[in-house]
Description:
Layout: H1 2-23, H2 45-79, E1 85-92, E2 99-107, E3 110-116, H3 119-126, E4 131-137, E5 141-152, E6 158-169, E7 174-180, E8 190-194
Parallel strand pairs: 1-7
Antiparallel strand pairs: 1-4, 2-3, 2-5, 5-6, 7-8
Amino acid sequence: xxxxxxxxxxxxxxxxxxxxxxxxxxxxxxxxxxxxxxxxxxxxxxxxxxxxxxxxxxxxxxxxxxxxxxxxxxxxxxxxxxxxxxxxxxxxxxxxxxxxxxxxxxxxxxxxxxxxxxxxxxxxxxxxxxxxxxxxxxxxxxxxxxxxxxxxxxxxxxxxxxxxxxxxxxxxxxxxxxxxxxxxxxxxxxxxxxx
Length: 195
């Protein structure tokens, strides 16, 4: 996180210096201005210099954006190396009409994710979408996953369920899917699956 803020500061300084260089130029004469020397449509040296600087600024912006994207990828690889990575996904059971309001996850008693769903996200989940709710690092071995789900049933009744699961982490990425369903559907409210 510190690296990201450091790079954002560097990027901001580069852009600020680029714009400061542009601001230091003298204004180019406007057509019809009595200070023009009659060249008409030909660009003055100041205008040419301004265009050149503008192109350089655009190149710098493009470079900064590509560097920022590369830094984000590198940061994710450093923060979440594949040997210790665990990713948890949330899905709704097919055809379930429960309104999922919030999901809270704890790994080994420590809160790692708390997510509140809006109407658009809920609709995407109902259409078969899957949300990556958590990516983080855990050591190899057995871990306790506690899942708390809050929502409303089709009849408008509040629904809250907590389930406890154990998963084993090996020296490779671990992918876990949690499928949520209301008790109306006749399915287990929270199903644990490994991908």
